[in-house]
Automatic annotation (TrEMBL):
Family: Belongs to the sigma-70 factor family. ECF subfamily.
Organism ancestry: Bacteria, Bacillati, Bacillota, Bacilli, Bacillales
GO biological process, alphabetically ordered: DNA-templated transcription initiation
InterPro entries: RNA_pol_sigma-70-like, RNA_pol_sigma-70_dom, RNA_pol_sigma70_r2, RNA_pol_sigma_r2, RNA_pol_sigma_r3/r4-like, WH-like_DNA-bd_sf
The protein's name: Sigma-70 family RNA polymerase sigma factor
Domain named RNA polymerase sigma-70 region: residues: 7-72
Organism, as annotated: Mangrovibacillus cuniculi
NCBIfam families: sigma70-ECF
Amino acid sequence: MDFEEVYEKYFKEVNLYLLSLCRDEKLAEEMTQEAFFKALKAIEKFDGSRDIRAWLFTIARNTYFSQYKRAKHENHVTETQETGADVTIVQHLMNEEEAFIVHQFLHSMREPYKEVFSLRTFGELTFEKIGLLFGKSAGWARVSYYRAKKQIIDHMEEVNNERH
C-alpha cells in the first residue's frame, strides 16, 4: 500500500480521533494534516510490525499533545469536551446543567484516563488498539477506561450530594 492509499483510507478516522480530543474542527483538520505529514516523513521507518492504523493514531496523539503543550504555553488551551458511554453518565448529560459539570470534570481529568476514555468513547477503539497506542496491554486500557468512568460517576454523585 503506497502512502496515498494510506492517506485516503485513514484520513477520516485520524481526523475524527483528533476532533474527539480537541473539539475544534479547524484545529483537528490542521493537526490531521500535520500528523500525515509527519507520517510521510517517517514512513521509511515504519517496519510493518505494528498495525498502520495504530501507528497513525500514535502520531496523531503525539501531534495533539504537541499542540496542547504549545497552546498551554500560550494560555490558549482549547477546552476538551467529552461525553460518557456509561448509562449513568448519559443520564447526567440529559440535563444541561449536569452536562456542563461532566464536561468540566472531563476537562480536568488527568492523563491517561481522559485520553483512554476519549479513545474508547469517541474513537470507538478496542481495548487492544488503545493498549497498542500506549505501548501497554489491553488489560491496562480496560482498567484505565473503567477507572475514568468511575471517577466521573463518583464526581457526579458528590455534586448531587452537595445539592441536597
